[in-house]
From TrEMBL:
Protein name: Maleylpyruvate isomerase family mycothiol-dependent enzyme
InterPro entries the record matches: DinB/YfiT-like, Maleyloyr_isom, MDMPI_C-term_domain, MDMPI_metal-binding
Pfam families found in the cross-reference section: MDMPI_C, MDMPI_N
Ranges where the MDMPI C-terminal domain occurs: 178-271
Domain Mycothiol-dependent maleylpyruvate isomerase metal-binding as annotated: residue spans: 22-160
């Protein structure tokens, strides 16, 4: 395909793959210890239980290996929680794999991710940096795999939320969470400027705390963009919250009302609050 108008994201292949492979390993270990009842527990994703989330992961990686999306027994586009064409494809995989037992599904997850590990490891650097379609628009295949790391990492925490097995501080720290947060940070210009409507001249800092602590700075200068810092200027709005909570709010996995007292605002609080109210940008 033709090159995108914006710069292509060039990422280190071994580093990104270390994150993606790590989150697959973590999910394998997490669900490997679940009871049959746990597999049927509803997750924060409407209409999906733990079994469905793992089915979705298998389906996406299978499609990336060239496997055709299965047909569904119903018109899945009529389901309330299916909101777009991507949701239709996801749901078709989920419904197809619901007939598998937990043990069969886990075996399929392991086989599918093993095949993907080999395929990704065999990619040349040229293929890794080649421009392709990604959920974030035309960009490098490496960017696509960072998006995959983010998606799988989010789904790990969907499962953890469902079965009451929150990650420890040690389990949160690692390449998977680093690249997941990197991917979310890349979308904060859109969140601050487009969704949150921060006025021109705004300088917004997300101050993430806890094991996932980092600062994400967004400057609005005509168009909002993520910056390393504001030079000699102070932020006009600050938003301080736990890093995992930031991720769950951005992914629409929890509501702001449940966590309003866990977020601190500084500077122009009205702008900060409006941004957080529109933080959920994930499809």
């Amino acid at each position: 395909m033709s090159s995108p108008s914006r710069p292509v994201t060039v990422l280190d292949k071994p580093a990104v793959l270390s994150g993606l492979f790590a989150v697959w390993r973590d999910i394998d270990e997490l669900v490997g210890d679940l009871s049959d009842t746990d597999w049927q527990t509803p997750t924060p994703l409407p209409g999906w239980n733990v079994h469905d989330v793992v089915s979705h992961l298998i389906g996406t990686e299978s499609m990336l290996q060239g496997v055709d999306t299965p047909e569904a027994d119903i018109d899945v586009s009529t389901l309330e929680h299916v909101r777009n064409d991507i949701g239709v494809m996801n749901e078709r995989w989920v419904r197809k794999l619901r007939t598998l037992s937990a043990a069969e599904l886990l075996d399929m997850f392991r086989a599918t991710t093993a095949e993907r590990r080999q395929a990704l490891s065999d990619l040349s650097n040229a293929q890794w940096n080649d421009v392709t379609f990604t959920p974030a628009g035309p960009d490098s295949y490496g960017r696509f795999m960072r998006v995959r790391t983010f998606d799988c990492w989010m789904h790990e925490h969907d499962i953890r939320d469902a079965v009451g097995a929150p990650a420890s501080a040690g389990e949160l720290v690692g390449p998977a969470s680093d690249f997941a947060l990197d991917e979310m940070a890349a979308s904060m210009g859109f969140v601050v400027g487009k969704l949150g409507g921060a006025p021109d001249g705004s300088r917004v800092s997300f101050e993430l705390t806890g094991p996932l602590g980092r600062t994400i700075n967004v400057a609005v200068e005509g168009r909002a963009k993520v910056v390393d810092d504001f030079g000699d200027e102070d932020p006009t709005s600050t938003i301080q919250l736990d890093g995992l909570l930031f991720a769950r709010l951005a992914g629409g996995r929890t509501s702001l009302e449940q966590h309003a007292d866990e977020i601190t605002y500084g500077g122009d609080q009205a702008v900060g609050r409006r941004i957080v109210e529109h933080l959920n940008y994930v499809i």
